[in-house]
Amino acid sequence: SNGVDRELRAPICCILGHVDAGKTKLLDCIRRSNVQGGEAGGITQQIGATYLPVENIRERTSLKAVATIKVPGLLVIDTPGHQSFSNMRLRGSSLCDIAVVVVDITRGLEKQTIESLDLLKHRNVGFIVALNKVDRLHGWKTCPNAPIAKALKNQSEDVQSEFKWRVTEVVTQLKENGFNAALYYENKKMKEVVNIVPTSAVSAEGIPDLLLLLVRWVPEIMMDRLTYVNNVECTVLEVNEDKDFGTTIDVVLINGALSKGDRIVVCTKQGPVTTNIRYLLTPYPMKELKAKGVYKHHEELKAAQGVKIAVRGLRHAIAGTALIVVKPGDDLERAEAAAVQE
Ligand code: GTP
Ligand code: NA
Ligand code: MG
What are the beta bridge partners of residue 82? Predict the structure, then answer.
């Protein structure tokens, strides 16, 4: 099939990298939010999820040829870079379709960059390198929101030459870690050679390039994987207590649909628990799932989405495990066994 009448779901993109490379700030730049500014010590300590509808991405890229985008949006998973949160990096990389590894251009590959690369290598997950903080190159003239090629043209020879040697250094370091990589606009083998996109989370140079790779190129290379199917595939990210909703679980709905009232099985520290979805909630588009805020209520939600589910009995649910939907007539014992196995 050429995929023309397939329904594609939003790709799930996990942001990985060393602490302070600019992962959250890049998302803030795209969302026009300030999540990073509100973090204790400027350090991310929880996994996050944000849905970016295609209309917002279009506006961010000032892209005219909208017909070429075949996905409804992008679901972005933010992870912490601090060394103590490797479990969250593992969780994020386990459920994504593609990763963005953020590297600070002034620092090159660092410890958790390499840890992230190893994780992706072992799980065979494709990724793009965002070579961030280009605005910190000495003498950089900012061109807010410009595609990177345009921004680079605007720089002095000195800046351009610093840019070149720093890119070469990162390419060498990636090579030492087993990856061939190239600036994406010079990359003639996009499927085999890792794409590098220079970015700034402060002045937004390269943001249009990064978004376009994610919503146009990624769906092109993983059409089958992104084809919507009705089987629920869903992972628990976090368990919270909410003053209005009681116990809530934040989940990533990877495929299929969830409905209010659905009977679900989730693994807890006391074993599998069967319960019902009391409320099916999402933050507003472009808002972080983990941020306290106003939620939208839904009767039904289709993948891919970051979802907050209000439930009874799941206070001790285990993050990283699967949520399983039990349809009328399904074998409950089998579902419970499956929940434990995941
Ligand atoms: P962790 O989640 O704690 O691992 O960090 P992070 O990768 O999310 O980095 P974060 O967004 O917290 O940014 C770290 C610092 O770098 C902050 O002070 C940001 O303002 C700054 N920063 C991030 N991106 C850029 C950039 O492109 N240019 C400049 N000049 N500063 C940046
Ligand atoms: Na940080
Ligand atoms: Mg962060």
Answer: none
What does the alpha-carbon distance between residue 123 and residue 58 come to, in Å, rounded to a whole number?
31
- pLDDT for 9-29, tens place per residue? 999 999 999 999 999 999 999
Establish whether residue 43 lines the binding site of ligand 1, counting it when its CB lies within 6 angstroms of any ligand atom: yes
Asked whether the ipTM of the predicted complex exceeds the cut of 0.90, the reply is yes
Alpha helices in 143-231 (DSSP H): 148-153, 157-176, 207-212, 218-221
**Smallest CA separation from ligand 1 atom 26, residue:** 133
Does any ligand 1 atom lie closer than 6 A to the CB of residue 25?
yes
| Interval between CA 25 and ligand 2 midpoint (Å) | 8
Question: Encoding tokens for residue 197?
Answer: 């996109």
Please write the tens of the pLDDT for every residue from 30-56.
999 999 999 999 999 999 999 999 999
How far is CA 217 from each of CA 98, 214, 223, 226, rounded to the nearest angstrom? Answer: 11, 6, 10, 12
Distance CA 341, CA 323 (A): 11
- Residue 24's contacts (CB-CB under 8 Å, 6 or more residues apart) are 35, 36, 39, 44, 48, 78
Which residues contact residue 93 at a Cβ distance below 8 angstroms, ignoring those fewer than 6 apart? 14, 16, 99, 116, 119, 120, 123, 125
State the closest ligand 1 atom to the C-alpha of 79, by its place in the atom list counted from 1.
2
